[in-house]
Every structure is written in C-alpha cells, then in structure tokens.
Amino acid sequence: MVARAAFFDPTGAEYGIPTYPWRYAPEGYATRRGLRALGLRPGGQPVAAQVLRGRHRRPPLVAYLYRIDLALPVSPMTSRKWGALALAMLARRTCPKCRITYSYCLPTSLGTCVPCAYPGPHGPEGSN
Q: Is 31 in contact with 24 (CB distance < 8 Å)?
C-alpha cells in the first residue's frame, strides 16, 4: 500500500490539486471520457482533481478529474455539423493528386493514395 499512500493528497498540498490513487477518486468526479459517457462535457471548468497511477521506472499516469455537478450537457449534432463532418471525411478519402475517392482514409504519411505515392510502370492507375 506504499504506492497508494504516495498518491493520496486530498488537500492538494503536495501536488497542487487534490490527488488520489488510481480507482480511489471520490464520488462526484469524472474524467472527460466518464463525463461523455454520462452525456456531459466539462464546460470550461478547471481541473478539479487528478488520479495518479504509478508505473515501474516511468513517470506515473495522470487522469484529470472534473466535477460532475458543474458539467454541462453535450450539445447535439445539428444538420450543419453532420454535413461538415461528412465533407471532412470525404476530404480524407480523396487523393489530392488523382482526385479518386476511396472507401478508406488515405495514409497521412504518404499524403496521397498508394498508387500515386508509388507509381508502377503503367502510371498511377496501377500495374494492370
């Protein structure tokens, strides 16, 4: 229990904000992912506490906690937001060189589709 006692600082004297060991956070706090599961978002509130998890020979993992009572509901997706998301995904699937739209997102490491990045002897259409 030495590792758990090392991260127990509910007053925030040692770490600057209230700190708890992994899985020992009090009720009323949640991470961003936990808030999202409840249909909430932090809503601009500052980090209220943190949870630390010790790791062997590495710095500890940190999870920031927000107060659930100050969280705001997630704004619903409007038709304009859905349209903007569809256009962004279309841009990720379209090759900027040959303008072909694929059924998958193109690799960002290449910046183009694979046939354009590595043209074969028959051009960017492939080696048919």
A: no
Confidence (pTM): 0.66
DSSP for 22-80 reads: TT-PPTTEE-HHHHHHTTEE-TTPPP-EEEEEEETTEEEEEEEEEESTT-EEPPPPPHH
Render pLDDT for 86-118 as a digit per residue (tens, 0 to 9): 999 999 999 999 999 999 999 999 999 999 999
Please tell me the distance from the alpha carbon of residue 42 to that of residue 29, in angstroms, as a whole number.
Answer: 11
Q: Which residues contact 60 (CB under 8 A, 6 or more apart)?
A: 7, 52, 53, 54
Task: Give the chain's largest Cα–Cα span.
Answer: 69
Question: Among candidates 48, 54, 45, which has minimal Cα distance to 17?
Answer: 48
